[in-house]
Amino acid sequence: MTDPSRTAIQTPVMPEQPTLIVERDGVRYTLLGTAHVSRTSVDAVRAAIDSGAFDQVAVELDPQRLQALTDPDALAKLDLIKVLREGKTALFAANLALAGYQRRLAEKLGIEPGAELKVAAMEAKARVLPLHLIDRDVGLTFRRAMRSLGWWGRAKISAGLVAGMVATEEVDEDQIEKLKEGDMLESAFNEFANETPALYETIIAERDRYMAARLRESTGGAREVLAVVGAGHLQGLARHLREDVDAPAHIRETLEYVPKKSSIPWFALILGALLLTGLAWGISHGGLKLGADLLLQWVIVTAALTAVGCAVAGGHPLSILASAVVAPFKPFRPTIPSGAVGALVEVRLREPTYADFMALRDDVRTVRGWYRNRVGRVLLVFLLTCLGTMIGEWIGIVRIVGKLAS
What we know:
6 strands, six-stranded mixed sheet, 19 helices
């Protein structure tokens, strides 16, 4: 016989809005499925909270996404130097790509994506109701998604994110349909998620389980909880809320875990070994003159191509110089990319203004905007300088091997 305290019942909070109710551990969870680009969903959320039937509210957001929705100055408060030093440049670029995608949606549809989640948070605050942010941090989701892919998959997504930041074409109908089903990340990664089951698992299925655990963990003492989530999460969230028996804290910690990268920089070690072996071989067979010639070629090639990359990015002359000086030492300091050095110098010399941050989401949609905006230019310096160093390293190794072979 089915336990009535753990059944899901479909019931409308408002016409055309899918709703499931799950009762567990003395708490009744009303799961309201929304579309992230629907005025009807906005009205349904407002009506549900205004009904006074709920004593707590939960939303499919994490603190970072809530801040982005409710605080127009959030981006301007970013510490760009901290982003560079902590190696979070790729995540920052991913967030920019997502923001650009949301901006294109807003222009096409005339409504801010996620408006119903913003309304839920604001209405809960206005009625002094406890508000729970139950979604996993978007940075954790992004890192777990990237870890689930091979090298080629990560390269495709990285290229797609860069393209997404500068894209100007309209959002297609398939993506809009995904948003009507209610998940922003699935829509943004639609092309990749359809081709890669592991990516779908990380972006959608894992988050269903994570949000169910967060609901159980954070709503103790409540009787009636309204959870506002994308309609695409409704069935999975209800199933996990009914069926999961593991402690919610354990589930959350498991789904927040990101395997650390190997502490051994194999690529840099191999590159350094090739370089040192080549130099040693040259000295032993051609004397110090040949060894010095090989070393000079390495320094010139890596420094020159690094400088070219930084210059193409529009870097300050001192940023170009700093990047070029450290580039030849890259195999022996693998944790400090030459692009990071150039970008840090660029930030110090051309500190981004408040206006740069506020205009960033629009400026990165054009090539000219990237160079005009100081934040965008810092990102360009980081990316193109690193690319220049990488090309220089391979050319340098090839030239040393060719010199020895001749």
